[in-house]
Design a protein that fits this description.
This protein is α+β, with helices and mostly antiparallel strands. The protein is built from twelve helices and 15 strands. The strands form five sheets. The chain has a seven-stranded mixed β-sheet. β13, α8 and β14 form a beta-alpha-beta unit. The two termini are 20 Å apart.
């Protein structure tokens, strides 16, 4: 999509390192198309655009906005990383939408994950070396609130779930694992399906609402722990953006279960902001990254308030609930005949692959 837009705007057949990395055809260490991967999939190199940094002047736009430079290209989560000014190794952001995507800046070296995460390009600004990241995608977060509204009908709008959840003091021992189409990072289990665990006669709709919100927090903790294992140190804070960050109860829950500060910026549309930042750097509107950091301002901050024993107990219960989601699908997978087609994570049983080639992308 980005290369098509650039071709239409300024007549250049180019893409940037972040979008190229998402094709699984680029060697993320050399930043060039990988001949072995192209050969495996059967794609002629001549078809592919030139790979460029994420921030440079690619050309001038055409008639519609004549004379304006086209100066940045970024994938959406990479743009959010820039928009959150996560420019130092160890900085992390999570975008909370229908699903959620947590990225951790790992600096100028790619870190191969051994904990179920993805190694990706973070961004490349001009002639600077590329910045890499660890990424943990979560399949269902905001989509669970939508399901609770549309399929169950206990709330009339997404915003009402916070009010309903606040009618109770805790989840009453109820945990909701929304593995609607399997589990993404760090589990990667396509055989998993959703589970509500810990139901008793005491549970009411308020407890269910709180369990829905807490599902996002516990899933985030799983990814954060995997990142800490791979990166070798804990997060100092988590910068958040996306529609779900309007839910203050969820933000406090995140701080509690992660045991770190959760910070929301004034500008919530960090994807668009990151693309604008990258373009501003290219044309000289912003002199350096420090000026972007000074332009970032927080709108809200949540600090941990949960007792450590309660946090550990809740996470232990969550992991027990997750364990009950896997191996749900039988070998014949007859139940899939009744399900709508959805995007699913990688299958559990994979065919043999050339791991040396895959690690490069």
């Amino acid at each position: 999509m980005d290369s098509w837009l650039l071709w239409k705007l300024c007549g250049r057949h180019v893409t940037d390192v972040t979008n190229a990395s998402r094709t699984l055809l680029m060697n993320i260490q050399t930043l060039g198309w990988d001949d072995e991967l192209l050969s495996m999939i059967g794609i002629p190199r001549a078809m592919l655009p030139e790979i460029r940094p994420s921030s440079e002047i690619y050309g001038e736009a055409g008639v519609a906005v004549a004379g304006l430079p086209v100066a940045s290209v970024l994938g959406d989560q990479h743009a959010a990383l820039v928009g959150q000014t996560c420019f130092s190794p160890g900085d992390a952001k999570c975008t909370y939408g229908t699903g959620s995507f947590l990225l951790l800046n790992t600096g100028e070296r790619p870190i191969t994950s051994h904990s179920g995460l993805l190694t990706t390009l973070g961004y490349q600004l001009g002639d600077s070396p590329p910045t890499y990241a660890l990424e943990g995608p979560i399949a269902v977060t905001g989509a669970l609130v939508q399901w609770f509204r549309d399929n169950i009908g206990l709330i009339g709008s997404a915003a009402e779930i916070e009010t309903l959840a606040l009618t109770v003091e805790d989840n009453g021992g109820c945990y909701f694992v929304p593995a609607f189409s399997g589990l993404f990072a760090p589990h990667w289990r396509s055989d998993a399906r959703g589970v509500i665990a810990g139901l008793t006669g005491y549970i009411n709709k308020g407890h269910l609402a709180r369990a829905v919100l807490e599902a996002t927090a516990w899933q985030t903790r799983e990814v954060v722990e995997a990142m800490s294992d791979d990166y070798g140190s804990r997060l100092a804070e988590l910068r958040v953006d996306g529609g779900m960050t309007a839910n203050n109860l969820l933000m406090q829950c995140l701080a509690d279960v992660l045991d770190v500060a959760v910070v929301r910026p004034i500008v919530a549309e960090t994807v668009s902001l990151g693309a604008a930042y990258a373009a501003g750097i290219a044309v000289g509107f912003w002199p350096d990254l420090d000026s972007l950091k000074r332009n970032w301002h927080k709108a809200g901050e949540w600090l941990p308030q949960m007792d450590s024993s309660a946090r550990d107990r809740g996470y232990r219960k969550w992991k027990k609930a997750v364990a009950r989601t896997v191996d749900w699908l039988d070998d014949d997978r007859d139940d899939l005949d009744e399900l709508p087609i959805q995007e699913s994570p990688a299958p559990v049983n994979r065919a043999p692959v050339n791991r040396a080639a895959v690690n490069r992308c």
